[in-house]
Structures are given as structure tokens and as C-alpha cells.
Amino acid sequence: MSQERATQVDRASGGEEPQEPLAVVAAAIVQHGRLLVVSKQAAPEVFYLPGGKPDPGEEPLQALCRELDEELGVEPREPRLLARVESVAALEKVPMHLTLFEARIDRLPRPAAELADMQWISGHERDVRLAPAVTDHLLPMLRQRGSMAL
Ligand SMILES: Nc1nc2c([nH]c(=O)n2[C@H]2C[C@H](O)[C@@H](COP(=O)(O)OP(=O)(O)OP(=O)(O)O)O2)c(=O)[nH]1
């Protein structure tokens, strides 16, 4: 944890406790060079990876399986930890600790009612607004690995 983060104080509540980053887990699912992204009804214009916040006591992979089932009715196949990323949560705009898994799926994702949209992107679309963690961290990583075109 950086010194800056360690000394961050929850001023809104007047408390003295350092504020923990928001924990989020998400899956990078790439098929034929395209990345699966979703947007939620809460913010239909912002796209990011399927996933969400773990429930209390839930392990990251458990949370990922639950979120993928709830959002898309799919199960991650051969999930592999890809990276842990510090970024800013696209909706809450607070520091976020994102645990990223890479996974395959073997059935068609079916967006649940909480989702506004779902797209398979190349990463070069001009009309798709992506969360900072996707643009700044995930896409460069996937391009470097050759999973997506430069
Ligand atoms: N799932 C996911 N969330 C991301 C990514 N990038 C990013 O900034 N976020 C942010 C968006 C939100 O601020 C937060 C996750 O919120 P969420 O709405 O998906 O979480 P959730 O499904 O658990 O929803 P809820 O309990 O708040 O209803 O993390 C990403 O790639 N995937």
C-alpha cells in the first residue's frame, strides 16, 4: 500500500481510519480478438468488464463466478489470475483494487436486467466509453500478450 493511500483519511465521515480501496473482481473474456464488456443500468454509457464487488467473506474467484452467473448466466472456464490493478472505480470514483481474471466461457452470454448493454470490442471503438482500468491497464496488457490486436 502506498504511503499516500495509507494516510488517506475518510474525511467525509470525520473518521481517522485510512479508507480501504473498493475491492472489485472482474473477468477478461476474449474471443476472436474481441473483449467482452458490459454497462450497467446505473450508468449505461460506461463499459467495463463483467464482475463486481465481492460479498463479505467471499473469495475473489467465488465472487467472480457469482457475478458472471448473475450478469450473464455464464460460468468462467479455466479462470486464471491475470493481474491486480490499482485504479479509480468508474462509478463511485473512489480508489479501487481490481482483481482481474482471464477466463473462457463456453455458452452465449445472456445479459440480465441489471445490464444496460453488452459488447465485444476491439478496443479501438471511438464511440464506446471504457472505464479507466480497462483503457489504462487491461487493454495494454492484452495487446502486449497478443490476445488482442495492437
Ligand atoms: N465489474 C467491474 N467494475 C469495474 C471495472 N472497472 C471499474 O472501474 N469498475 C468499477 C465500476 C464500479 O464503480 C465498481 C463495480 O461496481 P458494480 O456495479 O459492477 O458492482 P456490483 O455488481 O457488485 O454492484 P452493486 O453491488 O454496487 O450493485 O467498480 C471493471 O472492469 N469491471
Fold topology:
Layout: H1 3-6, E1 22-28, E2 30-31, E3 34-40, E4 43-48, E5 51-52, H2 60-72, E6 77-88, E7 95-104, E8 115-121, E9 129-130, H3 132-144
Bound molecules: 8-OXO-2'-deoxyguanosine-5'-triphosphate (8DG).
Region (Disordered): 1-20
Organism: Streptomyces lancefieldiae
Domain Nudix hydrolase: 20-143
Task: Explain this structure.
The protein is globular. The chain is α+β, with helices and mostly antiparallel strands. The model is unreliable at 1-14 (pLDDT under 50). The protein has helices at residues 3-6, 60-72, 132-144; strands at residues 22-28, 30-31, 34-40, 43-48, 51-52, 77-88, 95-104, 115-121, 129-130. The chain has a single domain, classed as Nucleoside Triphosphate Pyrophosphohydrolase. The protein has three helices and nine strands; from the N terminus they run αβββββαββββα. The strands form two sheets. Strands 2, 3, 4, 8 and 9 form a five-stranded mixed sheet that branches. A four-stranded mixed sheet has the order 5-1-7-6, sandwiched between helices. The structure holds 8-OXO-2'-deoxyguanosine-5'-triphosphate. Its cofactor is Mg(2+). Keywords: DNA damage, DNA repair, DNA replication, Hydrolase, Magnesium, Metal-binding, Mutator protein. Its EC number is 3.6.1.55.
